């Protein structure tokens, strides 16, 4: 464990807590894409299949449980909670996210480190996570008024993978044989997808005005 | 198995 990875995990944790806080306290998921939340639930479900078979540390297992629990409960809130589900703007959240799942699965079947069931699904979860934010970014462009919590959620979610990139650089420099091109490229693509969001987020923060993404 | 090392990440 290094400071970059810890910062990344804490930023990721903060992002899901911000979202859960928003949904649980104000009972609203306005501006949040259910498609992205469903994709993230699939990402964690396929990423952490080894939660029962391999144990690394209490921290590792605890964080996996938190990410699994939070992503599935957010999906549950947005789909089934009587108050929250009414605030979900179904008409705007129309990204065909299943069109993201299949290519990622095919790619994982083609490009992976080892051709085993767990490894292919784990690689699939990496590819899917890289694009999981797309429905949310599309939704943000459509809903003009981005409330602070949703903006913070996306910002933290984008930032965590940025910290992971620093972690990979650090581990590459300090650990022999630590080379994982698939993880690195997927993580880089993921972070780059946030580039324009980050730009407009900083602009709104610097000029102290509402976050508005260009249509 | 080098890939196992990577699995200690979330």
Could you give the count of β-strands of chain B? Answer: 0
Q: Which secondary-structure class do the elements of chain A indicate?
A: mainly alpha
Mean pLDDT of chain B: 66
Largest sheet of chain A: none
List how many beta strands of chain A DSSP finds: 0
Overview of the structural elements:
- Chain A: Its main location: endoplasmic reticulum.
- The complex is a heterodimer of chains A (215) and B (10).
- In chain A, 70% of the residues lie in helices and 0% in strands.
- Chain A has 215 residues and is an all-alpha fold.
- In chain A, helix 4 (98-110) crosses helix 5.
- The relative contact order of chain A is 0.15.
- The model of chain A has no long low-confidence stretch (mean pLDDT 95).
- The model of chain B has no long low-confidence stretch (mean pLDDT 66).
- Chain B is rod-shaped, with a radius of gyration of 6 Å.
- The termini of chain B are far apart.
- The A-B interface holds A 5, 9, 12, 47, 50, 54, 56-57, 60, 63-64, 67, 113-114, 119, 122, 164, 167, 175, 177-180, 183 and B 1-10.
Helices and strands, with pairings:
The complex is a heterodimer of chains A (215) and B (10).
Chain A: H1 3-26, H2 34-47, H3 58-80, H4 98-110, H5 117-131, H6 134-142, H7 148-174, H8 181-193, H9 195-206
Chain B: H1 2-6
Family (chain A): Belongs to the ERD2 family.
Keywords (chain A): Endoplasmic reticulum, ER-Golgi transport, Membrane, Protein transport, Receptor, Transmembrane, Transmembrane helix, Transport
Main location (chain A): endoplasmic reticulum
Quick overview:
The complex is a heterodimer of chains A (215) and B (10). Chain A has 215 residues and is mainly alpha-helical.
């Amino acid at each position: 464990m290094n400071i970059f990875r810890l910062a990344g995990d804490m930023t990721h944790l903060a992002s899901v807590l911000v979202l859960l806080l928003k949904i649980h306290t104000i009972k609203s998921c306005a501006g949040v894409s259910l498609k992205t939340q469903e994709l993230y639930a699939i990402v964690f479900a396929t990423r952490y299949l080894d939660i029962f078979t391999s144990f690394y540390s209490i921290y590792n297992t605890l964080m996996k449980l938190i990410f699994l629990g939070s992503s599935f409960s957010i999906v549950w809130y947005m789909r089934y909670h009587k108050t929250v589900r009414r605030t979900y703007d179904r008409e705007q959240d129309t990204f065909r996210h299943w069109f993201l799942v299949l290519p990622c699965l095919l790619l994982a079947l083609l490009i992976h480190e080892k051709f085993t069931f767990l490894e292919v699904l784990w690689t699939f979860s990496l590819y899917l996570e890289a694009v999981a934010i797309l429905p949310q970014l599309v939704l943000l462009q459509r809903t003009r008024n981005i409330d602070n919590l949703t903006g913070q959620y996306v910002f933290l979610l984008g930032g965590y993978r940025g910290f992971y990139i620093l972690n990979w650089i650090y581990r590459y420099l300090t650990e022999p044989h630590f080379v994982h091109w698939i993880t690195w490229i997927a993580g880089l693509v993921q972070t780059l997808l946030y580039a324009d969001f980050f730009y407009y987020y900083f602009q709104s923060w610097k000029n102290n005005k509402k976050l508005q993404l260009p249509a | 198995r080098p890939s196992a090392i990577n699995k200690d990440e979330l």
